[in-house]
Write a structure and sequence with these properties.
alpha+beta, two-stranded antiparallel ribbon, eight-stranded antiparallel beta sheet, 5 helices
Length: about 230
């Protein structure tokens, strides 16, 4: 179950007539300032590289629009670079998905529904969604370098979404952490999400190989059996 949750935002309000702006502090559930992950990425460099490649591709297209071989070579080069960057990010996360989920549940008791290794600008974090017994949703950010909880954030979810998640969890015997451990046999796990589409009891697990190749898997929520996700575009 993919859930796009905004953990924190920084707002600035311009003072009327003053020409200055006042920054609002960003806090978690406990009112403390949101902590930043210690695992950094070269996000800015990656974007610059992609822009440079796009400019070069545009020039190549202008010079020789009919050269299909050059275009194919450029696509392969871009894929190789992207795979290398994905592999570097996966390797930078010293804390596994299973360990991140365990850390989140120690902070917020409940049931983990998803865990995603997210790129937040220039840093990486594990974003773990926890559904409490009372039906409240919590998004817990974990430092992928230390396993420490950076902060947590409560979200108000639609009642139908909560009901779907509870229905999908009913009768399952494999937890999100156990699904992550099962998927780790296929590569470095970068995402674990509850499959709540009603087609079966399973976890969706994404992995990244040492060469950066990404694959999607289904982990049976009762047996922990891992199979390739036939419904994925890949």
């Amino acid at each position: 179950m993919k859930r796009n949750i905004v953990i924190a935002t920084v707002a600035a309000a311009a003072l009327i007539g003053g020409g200055t702006a006042t920054a609002l502090a960003v806090t978690g559930d406990d009112g403390a300032p949101v902590k930043q992950s210690g695992v950094r990425t070269s996000d800015d460099d990656r974007q610059d590289d992609r822009d440079d490649r796009d400019d070069q591709d545009d020039r190549n297209d202008q010079d020789d629009r009919n050269d299909q071989d050059d275009s194919a070579d450029g696509d392969r080069d871009d894929t190789a670079r992207d795979n290398a960057e994905d592999a570097a990010e996966a390797k930078a996360a010293k804390v596994t998905a299973a360990d991140a989920i365990t850390a989140a549940l120690k902070s917020i008791p409940g049931t983990a529904v998803s865990a995603d290794l997210d790129d937040e600008g220039s840093s990486l974090v594990w974003d773990v969604d926890v559904l409490s017994s009372g039906g409240a949703w919590h998004s817990v950010r974990i430092d992928p370098g230390t396993g420490k909880v950076l902060d947590s954030h409560t979200e108000q979810e639609d009642a139908d979404d909560t009901a779907e998640a509870k229905a999908a969890l009913k009768g399952t015997s494999v937890t999100a952490a156990e699904a992550a451990k099962a998927g780790a046999a296929k590569g470095t796990v970068t995402s674990v999400d509850l499959d709540d589409d009603g087609r079966g009891s399973a976890w969706d697990v994404d992995t990244t190989a040492a060469n950066g190749a990404e694959k999607e898997w289904k982990v049976d929520a009762k047996s922990a059996a891992v199979t390739a996700d036939r419904d994925s575009d890949d």
